[in-house]
Amino acid sequence: MGILPTVSVCIPTYNGESHLRETLESVVKQTGVQLEIIIGDDLSSDASMTIAEAFAQRHPEHQWGLLHSEMRRGMAGNWNACLRAATGDFVKVIGQDDLLYSGALATQARALVDHPTASMVVSGCEIVSGRGQRLFKRPRAWKSGLSSGSTMVAASLRHRANLIGEPVTVMARRGDLTALGGFSSEHRYYIDLEMWLRLLDKRDCFVIPEAQCAFRIHTRSVSSSTQKDDFEQFDDLPGAREMMASLTSSQREIRFLKAHLSTMVRSLLYRLFG
To answer: How many Å apart are CA 54 and CA 64, to the nearest integer?
Structure first.
């Protein structure tokens, strides 16, 4: 067997004790990669870091980076602190409440090793409730294998939606993430999509349609608390205004209404199942 790829799983945390144990259990069980686990705490007032420290002691077979902060970094600051601490060839940022399924890291890392034109790989995912109930598999618009990054970018901008994937579904090359200067602090709800748009500007994406992870929806999540407030920010994303300019006024109105309806549906799901 050749040298295993190195993967840094970055878990930015803030008062995440409710689900962090389950998240870490899903990470430490991953095989087929050299695993580094970076946990960046943004001055939590709960037991998040106590939980993280206990896992690090119980699983010395993995490399750990536990980042304590003396002041609030904010969402982008915490994500970037984790990225700066990462040493792996590949990076996956996951929420403190999300889950990885068996073999997810090895499968995604192998895809990046085998496809050098891809700047990132994205998998399917299941949506789970706050209590862990599997609700449905998130539909994907892309077929298995290599997809043109520019095509994925254009479709997301045209539909005013993240058609690429949540952070837990994505693995990217650390060198590409750092070369782009890390995550932008200009967007909260779209912090992931803003990076995907830049990563895929001139590169490919490898798509794995099978669900390799779970994205948890609950009313205390950042996604729940910021999506309404940040809805208007979408058209400040890279390339969005150029896309807007290419549409007729009626197309722009339809685009906005469909996106607004989608946001309302997501908000309802958070309230029902959070």
So the answer is: 11
What do you get for the CA distance between the two ends of the chain, in Å? 44
State the pTM of this model: 0.90
Are 177 and 195 spatial neighbours (Cβ–Cβ below 8 Å)? Answer: yes
CATH superfamily of 6-273: Spore Coat Polysaccharide Biosynthesis Protein SpsA; Chain A (3.90.550.10)
Q: What is the pLDDT along the chain (274 residues), one digit of tens a residue?
A: 468 999 999 999 999 999 999 999 999 999 999 999 999 999 999 999 999 999 999 999 999 999 998 889 999 999 999 999 999 999 999 999 999 999 999 999 999 999 999 999 999 999 998 888 889 898 778 999 999 999 999 999 999 999 999 999 999 999 999 999 999 998 778 999 999 999 999 999 999 999 999 999 866 555 544 555 567 788 889 898 998 899 899 988 888 888 888 878 777 776 777 6
> Among positive and negative, which fits the CA dihedral 23, 66, 226, 122?
negative
Sign of CA dihedral 201, 222, 227, 132: positive
